[in-house]
Amino acid sequence: MQAATLPLSSGWRWIQDGFSIFRSQPMAMFFWSLVTGFLITVSYLIPILGQMALIAITPTLTFITLCACRTITSGKPMQLPMWLAPLRATDTRKRLFTLGLAYLAFCIVAGFVATLPFMDALSTAINSEGAIDEHALFQAMRGPFITFGLLYVVISALFWHAPALIGWHGIKMSQALFYSMVACWRNKWPFLAYGTAWAAIFFAIQMAGTMISGMGLSPGAVQIMLTPVNIIVAAVLYCSFYPAYISVFGSNYPADR
Questions:
Q1: Boundaries of domain holding 65
Q2: Each residue of 62-81: pLDDT tens digit?
Q3: Structural element, H or E, at residue 82
């Protein structure tokens, strides 16, 4: 697999193309954004195990999203039975499930690596009676959060393109992770622009909510107002995964396996 090297402006172009995909069939992607939002909410109702399950199915959800975007860009209407069509092939399901377990394992290991060096500082935030010094705990958590964030950038690069490479091309997981890492490294500046743009978008939404609250509206009313906005923005985010892939690897791929 040969990954293209793109200019910095491609990061913003991916977001624009993602919005174009969303605009082509907004209700379809709005539905998928609702589904993923529901899964995220359910995962938090089951502490630890719920989050682990969500992480494990993330590559599968990503592949479903990519297939839906491919269908939309081909001009076909996205109907309800078509969402799970990419998973009909047993081999594809097994490969994506294995990829999800690997993703979970990488995240768990990164969590331990990020936390263990700071255990002494974390322990001092809890006294012998079990009371927590919130200020000390906040200070102690900065190191693990920063370390995990840096490790997660590497993990994200490994797994970013892997679902499509495995699902569409059927290549081995080790190769998919390698190709994904190389592609992300070659396009580090577009991805930096992409991530920065999305951070700015979500920050702007947050600031808008704060400003509306300052006008006297209750937090509940603000939440109701911003919920559809968040769902739409999340849908555009999911749509942007597809142009990010095809601009790097091209749109020549075999039919669903």
A1: 10-249
A2: 999 999 999 999 999 999 99
A3: none
